[in-house]
Design goal:
21% strand; globular; alpha+beta; 4 helices; single chain; 140 residues
Length: 140
């Protein structure tokens, strides 16, 4: 899959997206701690474990790695680990394929998919990489 930044949008572009932007950002920040120390090689293993792939995709120079998943044909979600520390907090930017807007997927569903896949990444870190990170229940 070839990825081009112009083919992706934030949750704010979806129907009801402005209301779900804060919800998604809060959910992401709760999960960053478990994901932020993954190396690109570990991110590749995690991506494969959840049916995704490590992709060559950068938002800017702070992008450490990017994982893409495809919940539905033509609907891609890309997670970009943004390493801004020590100046700012590290974060994960979540982008969605612009084509998903044509499907009429509401922001509520898109944000839920994004969170579920992040939870799956944390499960993979615990089960596949055998790293001791907080359980998913810590984030709920």
């Amino acid at each position: 899959m070839s990825l081009n930044r112009k083919d992706f949008v934030s949750i704010r572009e979806f129907e009801g997206g402005l209301a779900h932007d804060r919800f998604l950002r809060n959910a992401i920040q709760l999960r960053v701690k478990a994901l932020k120390d993954l190396t690109p090689d570990e991110a590749k293993v995690v991506a494969m474990a959840i049916g995704g792939r490590l992709v060559d995709f950068k938002i800017d120079d702070a992008t450490a790695w990017a994982i893409a998943v495809t919940p539905l044909p033509g609907f891609h979600i890309v997670y970009c680990m943004q390493k801004y520390s020590p100046e700012f907090e590290d974060t994960i930017e979540v982008l969605f394929s612009r084509k998903a807007l044509e499907f009429g997927i509401p922001a509520e569903d898109a944000s839920e998919w994004a969170i579920l896949y992040m939870n799956a990444m944390i499960y993979a870190i615990r089960r596949v990489l055998k790293k001791d990170v907080e359980r998913i229940s810590q984030y709920l």
